[in-house]
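Weekly puzzle thread! Below is a chain. First person to post its structure in token form gets bragging rights.
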Amino acid sequence: MTAVVPPAQDVLFHVLLALVVVVAAARACGALVARLHQPPVMGEVLAGILLGPSLLGQVAPAVMHYIQPPAIAPILSSLAQLGVMLFMFLVGLELDTVRLGRRTRAMIVISQVSIVVPFALGMGLAVFLHPRLSTADVPFTVFALFLGVSLSVTAFPVLARILTDRGLQGSDLGLIALSCAAVGDVTAWCLLALVTAVASAALASAWITFAITAAYLAVMFVVVRPLVARAVRAQELRGTVSQGAIALALGGMLLSALATEAAGIHAIFGAFLAGALIPHDSRLAQTLTRALADVVVVLFLPVFFASTGMRTEIGLVSGASEWLICGLIILTASAGKFGGAFAAARVMGFAGRDAAALGVLMNTRGLMELIVLNVGLERGILTPTLFAMLVLMAVATTFATTPLLDWLMRRGGAPAAEPVRS
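Winning reply:
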């Protein structure tokens, strides 16, 4: 019996219906969590999870399948990936390399220690989790490396939103936290690129993937970066940004994403680097941000959250033993991020309360963690059960940031984050 392919108009109808439901649910949940003094992006994450099998699939499975039938799953997945690519392009556009140059020593020490400690704890935890929550076709080395990366990520955009909501984005604490998160995320993306290269290629051909990646980076920094700088200067002299310049920037982003995807890593790395090569304070970067930000955040990212929600089955975490493992993952992730950032900040001369506030902020995961986890699920490194546990870890650690930061601020005013010694 041959499969029945739905008419094109039916597919379009369900795609549009799914987009309407996803955007409406994301906005409603975002407004709800905002009343709880949480960043609205976390409400959008929850909206995606609630639209999946964890809630809607349990209460009204027929409704869930009507809104998101299997025929439109590839379309929504493509829209979700395009949305994440555009979002990472925007994150790269907002990367202030000049600001990162300040407090260089403290920033590098804190950011790298807050990566190394949870990474090491994650690899240690992999010894316990691999025989229980992995499959035989996933090598332990790949599994351990990926789990280490999963526990090392900080959500740079969510962190920026939390600091803005608290009025701390211009404080010393906000500056050092944003700088550490940005540098740490770049390190985490590099580690993820390494892991995905190993996972997507046999060990014998992994070096080919590394060579292609190295060649790509050399071309981007040696050839493309000077050309971008020249084009940006020309736009600044004209005083306006033409549609041709915007088309070239977006086309370059797509080509960069295509190159990293073809290299066997992931398209998001190419999109991020393409944005990072454009000076953040240039007229071109500001025009691109104004043109893309609202559409990406309001339309495309909720589609990504819904796609993540469809893959997250909290019901797979069943029984006391699996919930204890989930709690162990949350505890290990929090201890690694908070402990690493706190210890490094104290060594660099920060007061105890300021170091604790920095550790709490660095434990924020949110969207970046979900991007990493989706990469792991797509590559077959994570099983659905472990994927659900790690999604719960991302949500729990991000939701804990705001109340813990408020508690620290109530203890003695807004943290200043001034080091005791230079």
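Puzzle host: Confirmed. Bonus trivia for everyone else. The longest helix spans residues 203-238.
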